[in-house]
Amino acid sequence: MLEIKNLKVSVNNKIILNKFNLEIKNGQICALMGPNGVGKSTISKVILGDKNYKVLEGTIKYNNQEITKLPTDKRAKLGIFLAMQTPSTIEGVSNQDFLKTAMESTFEKHIGLYQFILECEKAVKELKMDPTLIQRNLNDGFSGGEKKKNEILQMKLLKPSLIILDEIDSGLDVDSMKTVFTNIKDYLEENPQTSLLIISHYPMIFEYLKPDTVNILSQGKIVKTSDYTLAQEIFKNGYNKYIKALNQEDKNE
Ligand SMILES: Nc1ncnc2c1ncn2[C@@H]1O[C@H](COP(=O)(O)OP(=O)(O)O)[C@@H](O)[C@H]1O
Ligand SMILES: [Mg+2]
Fold it and tell me: Does the Cβ of 13 fall within 6 Å of ligand 1?
């Protein structure tokens, strides 16, 4: 279970999150929504321990262990995985070497090349990816959709227990979306204790991965939590109601 309490986060001396609370139980799907620039990607990176983001107050616990100050690789070893909104390109490192090294580091054991290739080929096929992407440099010249599929390939190989999907649907065409969502859904069915945090603006992902809770982020904190009907309402009417309500509260304080 992930428990975030009273988190205050800054980047470049600007406070992005303040009094941020969120809980995701094992096996739960949690949606995080909110207008552009409110800090959705910030929280996803903070959960992974990105050093560009400073935690000024509050705690992050995963399975009752405080991880607020743990380095990123240790968090990955605990089973936390982030599919980034904009995955980075690494020149001079092949996708295959990156994936194998990431697996060996996460599982803390040597993985034979033959076993790796078998596993990787199976996952590549399930994701309907172009197999030549495995030999190329990581994300170098990959299309938007190819980068996103490659994130899910990492997910399938690293077998996380907490998955964060930051706008995984952006850049994917409709058919690729179906493939990606189906792969995630199958993964959750095979690993029912896995928790999922979905950051997205698109209704289609929630048809495949139906959230147990929907949370709206605005002005640094969660301002509304409800069930799936909240997402449906947002798709219909937008965020205005919740942001206005918050501005009003600020004035009354
Ligand atoms: N490295 C950074 N340097 C300066 N500002 C940043 C940095 N990262 C994020 N921000 C700012 O923090 C705010 C929240 O960004 P982000 O978390 O990416 O929003 P969202 O994902 O909700 O659209 C934005 O105003 C953004 O410009
Ligand atoms: Mg974002």
Answer: no
Neighbour-count burial for 168-177, b at 16+ CB within 10 Å, e otherwise: bbebbeeebb
123 to 43, 45, 174, 194: CA distances (angstroms): 28, 25, 20, 18
For the entire predicted model, the pTM comes to 0.94
Give the E-state strand segments of 12-144 in sequence order.
14-24, 29-33, 54-62, 65-66, 80-83
Q: Which two tokens stand for residue 33?
A: 């929504």
Tens-digit pLDDT profile for residues 198-224: 999 888 899 999 999 999 999 999 999
- In angstroms, what is the span from residue 52 Cα to ligand 2's centroid? 15
Cβ of 240 less than 6 Å from ligand 1:
no
d(CA 215, CA 210): 13
Domains, the chain, ordered by start:
2-252 (3.40.50.300)
Tokens read off for 183: 């792969």
